[in-house]
Amino acid sequence: MSYRKTLKLICGFAGGSAALVLAAAAADSRGYLGEHRGEAAGRWSSFTAVQAAQPAWTPASHTPAPSGHAWDFNWDKRDPSALTNGKKKENATEDPSSEQDNGKPKATRNILLIRHSQYNLSGNSDKERVLTPLGREQAEYTGKRLAALGLKYDVLIHSSMARATETANIISKYLSGPGVELVSCDLLREGAPIEPVPPVTHWKPDAVQYHEDGARIEAAFRRYIHRADPKQKEDSYEIIVCHANVIRYFVCRALQFPPEGWLRMGLNNGSITWLTIRPSGRVALRTLGDAGFMPPDKLTRT
Predict the structure, then answer these.
(1) What strands, in cross-sheet order, belong to the sheet with 155-159?
(2) Which one of 168, 211, 259, 294 has the lowest number of neighbouring Cβ atoms within 10 Å?
(3) 179 φ/ψ sector (left φ>0, alpha ψ -120 to 50, else beta)
(4) Is residue 256 within 8 Å of residue 102, measured between CB atoms?
(5) Counting Cβ atoms within 10 Å, is residue 69 exposed (0-12), middle (13-18) or buried (19+)?
(6) CA-CA distances (angstroms) from residue 54 to 49, 60, 62, 115, 295?
(7) What is the pLDDT of residues 14-39, one digit of tens each?
(8) Which pLDDT tens digit goes with each residue over 168-225?
(9) Residues 163 and 129: beta-carbon distance below 8 Å
(10) Kind of pairing, strands 181-185 and 236-242?
């Protein structure tokens, strides 16, 4: 098979797999894939190699076939079409399309999840597990980074645990403008959300802890991670200061990944994880554990 014919065949069928197909076709023409055959047999063998190099595309759409579960647009139970199903209209003349449009979210929620800074690990109680001098310095860096983003923050919610509360208070000094309310929430406290897969040997909570903490952390997810209310007119930027286990679980649930994979991620102290939730229910992870704004010698993950 001539080089020119091989190149045409590659351009016609191979797409992004050109290098692979070129090697296969060249090897076949030289007998590396089998004995020399007639021209027709060689051409057919090269075409088979081209087909084998193709991605698993569906012929009709030329898009990759899904390999997992389809995206659930009603994951937060706030899909307008699902909310209006089965409801009786008070006014028979009311335009149903107009009613549905009025109930559609129009704003995007940006949720910035902040892990607390380094704290005193030797404390016997939560009150004693306050930030270390380095931890307070880390919170300063995080606050400066949030201010440098130039966003208009709407609220700063934080776990009621001492290390998260102290981190939030330091960060709040850098949030300019009125209306940034600080809200404490017990649901955001650290805990064991769900038994991790694969398991780890250094950390094995009792089954009852998973049962109790998991329900609480899931309740926090449902309270804070969802699309905007239809009454919200402008995009919002909300800060939540909490804990590594909570943030990792939130990310898995929001992206519809298996939640038991939460422990496969690592987060630095004071890092920023940014979730965006569109009105349609689409979720995007803009950053995961971003701590590049800190000097390397200030990074910790305790």
Answers:
(1) 181-185, 155-159, 236-242, 109-115, 272-277, 283-290
(2) 211
(3) left
(4) no
(5) exposed
(6) 9, 15, 11, 43, 45
(7) 455 555 445 555 555 555 555 455 55
(8) 999 999 997 677 899 999 999 999 999 999 999 999 999 999 999 999 999 999 999 9
(9) yes
(10) unpaired
The residue written with tokens 């309270």 in the block is 223
Q: Which of 56-60, 99-103, 148-152 has the highest mean pLDDT?
A: 148-152
In whole angstroms, give the CA distance from residue 241 to residue 158: 4
For 32, list phi and psi in degrees, rounded to 5: -75, -25
Neighbour-count burial of 194, counting CB atoms closer than 10 A to its CB (0-12 exposed, 13-18 middle, 19+ buried): buried
**In this structure, are residues 107 and 200 in contact, taking their beta carbons and an 8 Å threshold?**
no
Which helix or strand (DSSP H or E) is residue 80 part of?
Answer: helix 80-84
Amino acid at 194: I
Q: How far apart are CA 167 and CA 254, in angstroms?
A: 24
- DSSP assignment of 2-37 equals -HHHHHHHHHHHTGGGHHHHHHHHHHHHTTTTSS--
Amino acid, res. 292: G
Beta strands in the chain (DSSP E): 109-115, 155-159, 181-185, 236-242, 272-277, 283-290
